[in-house]
Write a structure and sequence with these properties.
Layout: H1 3-14, H2 20-33, H3 41-49, E1 54-58, E2 65-71, E3 76-80, E4 87-105, E5 111-121, E6 126-129, E7 134-150, H4 154-161, E8 165-170, E9 173-179
Antiparallel strand pairs: 1-2, 2-7, 3-7, 4-5, 4-6, 4-7, 8-9
Helix pairs in contact: 1-2
Organism: Metapseudomonas boanensis
Protein name: Cysteine dioxygenase type I
C-alpha cells in the first residue's frame, strides 16, 4: 500500500460531520501524506508532469476530494471563500503565502474585506479554512506543489448552490465580485 492509499484509508476511517476531531484527523492524515518520499511513483509523476490541477482522489461514498496543484512563483489567487465547504491546503514543495480576511459591512450596507494577516506555508505544513473563512494565496517560492483537500466537490457545489464568493479589488478595497 502506498502513502496515497494510506491517506484515503485514514480519512475514510475518521470521516464524519464537520467537527474539530474530523478536521484534526484529516490534517494529521495530510501531514503524513506530506512525508511521502519522491521514490513513490505517484508523487514522482506529480513533480514530473507539473499540472496546474490534478484530481488525486474523489471518495464515492463521503464526497471528499484531494487535488494536487502545481503553481508558478508569483501566481496570485484573490480573496475567496469556499461557501459551505471546508478545505485544508498542504504544501509539498515551494512556499505559499495565505492571507486571511474578515467580511465587514459598513453603515450603508456596502461590504468590503479587511485583511487580518498572512501565514507563510512551507513544505510539510498545512493550513485549514472552515466554511465562511475568506483567504487568498500567493506562490512565493515556486514551482510549488500543494494538495487541496476539500470536504466536497466545490465546483459542483457552486454550480448547484452558487454559494462560493470571489472578491475583486475596487478603488483599493476588496468587494464581493462574481460567484465562483
Amino acid at each position: 500500500m502506498n502513502s496515497l492509499e494510506k491517506f484515503v484509508g485514514g480519512v475514510r476511517s475518521i470521516w464524519g460531520a464537520l467537527s474539530s476531531e474530523v478536521v484534526a484527523g484529516c490534517q494529521q492524515q495530510l501531514d503524513e501524506l506530506l512525508k511521502t518520499p519522491l521514490t513513490e511513483q505517484w508523487l514522482a509523476a506529480l513533480h514530473l508532469e507539473a499540472l496546474a490541477q490534478q484530481e488525486m482522489y474523489r471518495d464515492p461514498t463521503n464526497g471528499f476530494v484531494l487535488l494536487a496543484h502545481t503553481e508558478p512563483e508569483g501566481l496570485y489567487r484573490p480573496p475567496h471563500d469556499h461557501g459551505r465547504g471546508w478545505v485544508i491546503y498542504a504544501v509539498q514543495q515551494g512556499e505559499i503565502e495565505m492571507g486571511t480576511y474578515a467580511r465587514i459591512e459598513d453603515q450603508d450596507g456596502r461590504v468590503k474585506l479587511v485583511k487580518r494577516g498572512s501565514t507563510l506555508v512551507r513544505p510539510g505544513q498545512t493550513q485549514v479554512y472552515l466554511p465562511g473563512d475568506i483567504h487568498d494565496t500567493r506562490c512565493i517560492s515556486g514551482p510549488a506543489l500543494l494538495f487541496r483537500f476539500t470536504d466536497r466537490d466545490l465546483k459542483k457545489e457552486d454550480k448547484e448552490a452558487h454559494r462560493l464568493t470571489r472578491y475583486v479589488e475596487q478603488d483599493g478595497a476588496w468587494i464581493p465580485g462574481a460567484r465562483l
